[in-house]
Amino acid sequence: MRKYYFLLFFPLFLFAFSVSGCKEKKTKNKPDEVQAIDKTVNSPVTIGNETTLLLKDLKENGDYVNSKAYPSLIKSSIVNESIGKNILVVDLRSPKQFSEGHIKGAVNKAFTDVPSYFETGIKPFEYDKIIMVSDDGQISSYTTCLLRLMGYGNVYSMRWGMSAWNKMYAQEGWLKGVSGKYENKLENTVNEKPALTGMPDLKTGLSTGAEIGTARFKKLFEEGTSGILISADEVFNNPQKYFIINLDRKDKYEDGHIPGSVRYKPEGTLGYTDELATIPFDKPVVVYCGTGHNSGFATAYLRLFGYDAHTLKYGNNGFMYDKMVKQRSTLSWLPFTMEDVNNFDVVK
């Protein structure tokens, strides 16, 4: 597999180690220990050896999730303007959907076939841009994040998916998915992050960060996308079943959020172990944002590290849409509307 340049500032663990402890030479294969910040936890939190190796490899190969390129989204209008130029559109929808209409020049690939296609089917870096496309833009966001982390720095996800391309897709996609069904069940309580508990233990049996990363990517692509998305109905019917992460601004969170959800900063969570170690890994994790695009990227990263993470379909648009429309100017919400829909051509 191609060498990937990953994200992250390997955390400084300012609350975890003394300066001398950070410089101290560690015994090979000995897990790092992160001292918990919460006063109720007296014992250190253990970060497994493989997780530590992968984190180190991420540090040495870049910091995608904390870079200006994250999240790598592109407007459908720019894609349309680029048709016939040096771009490649990869359509992740089903063969049936693809045959009924797709962007001119697009190729249809199953999610599970994407790694081999990038390795042997094309020369990815010969293209100015490679645009991943799905029906709603969330699966393509998940896929784009994985590919970016693998080192493909010219990959983008088309915002809103095919719903932004033509109204016939919007009518069956985003316009059908938006809902204000659960607006009356939101809470304003600020839920604090849990105490540091650690991170999932990666058990690939490999000895280098690069090998561990490759194995994790292979596994994620083999698993497919059937468990990536989760509906608002599933979450609101039993919110206690999940650890729910809100990835949004503080003012938006405080104005109303899913009961029990905890806010994590979009720009200051991924790649920071003292943040990641507060996310429980003994229950499913649901990540949500305004549109589901950012949460799709975040879900890919969390699953890379072994969290049972899922992205909420349509984000806030899927359960508090009317509220978003009313507060569009005051809170800068992004409700999906016909303004986001174009009338671009499709080919069969």
Structure description:
The protein is α/β, with parallel strands linked by helices and about 350 residues long. The protein has 15 helices and 12 strands. The chain has helices at about 20-25, 50-60, 75-80, 95-100, 115-120, 140-150, 165-170, 175, 210-225, 230-235, 250-255, 275, 295-305, 320-325, 330, and strands at about 30-35, 45, 75, 85-90, 105-110, 130-135, 155-160, 230, 245, 260-265, 285-290, 310. It has a 5-stranded parallel β-sheet with strand order 3-7-6-4-5. Strands 8-12-11-9-10 form a 5-stranded parallel β-sheet. Strands 1-2 form a two-stranded antiparallel ribbon. β4 (about 85-90), α4 and β5 (about 105-110) form a beta-alpha-beta unit. α2 (about 50-60) packs across α9. The two termini are about 35 Å apart. Residues about 1-45 have low confidence and may be disordered.
How do the strands and helices of this protein lay out in sequence?
Blueprint: H1 19-23, E1 32-34, E2 45-47, H2 49-60, E3 73-74, H3 76-82, E4 87-91, H4 95-100, E5 107-108, H5 114-121, E6 129-133, H6 138-149, E7 155-158, H7 167-172, H8 174-177, H9 209-223, E8 229-230, H10 232-237, E9 243-246, H11 250-255, E10 262-263, H12 273-276, E11 285-288, H13 293-304, E12 309-312, H14 321-326, H15 328-331
Parallel strand pairs: 3-7, 4-5, 4-6, 6-7, 8-12, 9-10, 9-11, 11-12
Antiparallel strand pairs: 1-2
Helix pairs in contact: 2-9, 6-13
